[in-house]
Design goal:
Strand content: 15-25%
Low-confidence stretches: 1-8
Order of helices and strands: HHEHHEHEHEHEHEEEHHHEEHEEEH
Largest sheet: 7 strands, mixed
Distance between the termini: 43 Å
Number of helices: 13
Mean pLDDT: 94
Strand order of the largest sheet: 2-8-7-6-5-3-4
Shape: globular
Helix content: 25-40%
Length: about 325
């Protein structure tokens, strides 16, 4: 077991580990480390049939196509499954990976034997000809930076003209669906990853989607095999993507909460350098110290080394907002 853990990259949500380290019961923590919607889609009772039948007798694909506006897609066991599998569908390639960004992207392509080259957002246009593929998150994780759809499509056109790919991870896109590339994903060489983990707050269901052309999706499906998502998870996902009323209400609420978090951090001297509705990001040489100070008070945030920075997710309850404010005030003083 220790050898397996050591091979995993660090992510948010390691609450049990934090509880043990700081001697604070898990129930007493405020977990702001994940960027997951703290008021996720309300899951109804799951029918017995979802457990008893093989998980493919539903309308998940069709409902997801409608929700994302895509022409073709493949449900997968969280977008992480696609991140790990996609590198196996190409011969050795030069892969430009945005930095900073979700660390699993670079890790997956490098592990599969590809040449991975880090690229800063402002250098992409100048260096695009050096890559066979470009991989990035939009909005970026952890900075929250967004790329205009027109710019992304222009980069895709350049890459596709020589058989390249543009892989866009849209895990945090649901609040601004009008900016998504999913409706364009049938174009050869354009691959869009979506997830129900963040906006819908269903990270534990492990449901994601790959929006791309049919030929690539067929190869990916062959690689992953059948029944990649459990019947209960498919049942929940099928209902969630149809719930238009909840989606509209939630987008408005998250916009208000995101602005509230930005204002709170600014008021306490930690004005964000970036972020989106589900998290705020602050560059600071004191990142590790700030994480430690908040953790000693039972508040878990995400810390990054390159660049030295922290990411704050949204508190869930009013008491959590007050507790975060009070903790930052104590640290400040």
């Amino acid at each position: 077991m220790p050898a397996r853990v050591n091979r995993l990259l660090h992510h948010g949500g390691r609450l049990r580990e934090a509880a043990a380290r700081y001697g604070i019961p898990a129930a007493d923590w405020i977990d702001l480390s994940t960027g997951i919607n703290p008021h996720g889609w309300p899951v109804p009772p799951i029918p017995d049939s979802a457990w008893a039948r093989l998980p493919d007798d539903d309308e998940l694909e069709q409902n997801a196509l409608t929700y994302y506006g895509a022409r073709h897609l493949l449900p997968v066991a969280g977008s992480q499954a696609a991140i790990q599998a996609l590198p196996q569908l190409r011969a050795s390639s030069r892969v430009g990976v945005l930095v900073p960004d979700y660390s699993e992207h670079a890790h997956a392509w490098q592990r599969a034997g590809h040449e991975v080259m880090s690229v800063a957002a402002d250098d992409i246009s100048a260096r695009l000809n050096h890559f066979d593929l470009l991989v990035l998150s939009n909005p970026n994780n952890p900075t929250g930076r967004t790329f205009p759809r027109e710019q992304l499509l222009a980069w895709h056109q350049q890459l596709a003209a020589r058989g390249g790919w543009l892989v866009v991870d849209e895990a945090f896109m649901d609040v601004t669906p009008e900016q998504s590339l999913a409706p364009h994903s049938s174009r050869p060489g354009l691959i869009v990853l979506r997830s129900l983990g963040k906006f819908f707050g269903l990270a534990g269901a492990r449901v994601g989607f790959v929006c791309a052309g049919l030929e690539l999706l067929s190869r990916l499906e062959h690689l992953l095999g059948p029944w990649t998502i459990s019947g209960p998870a498919r049942h929940v996902a099928c209902l969630a993507v149809q719930d238009r009323r909840w989606q509209v209400i939630t987008r408005r609420r998250l916009a208000r909460q995101g602005e509230r978090l930005r204002a709170l951090l600014t008021h306490r001297g930690y004005a964000p350098d970036g972020g989106c509705t589900l998290f705020q990001w602050r560059c600071t040489p004191r990142a590790g110290q700030l994480q430690e100070q908040l953790a000693s008070r039972g508040i878990l945030i995400r810390c990054f080394d390159h660049p030295s920075s922290v990411r704050f997710g949204l508190p869930r309850e009013e008491a959590d907002w007050r507790r975060l404010d009070a903790a930052l005030a104590e640290i400040e003083s």
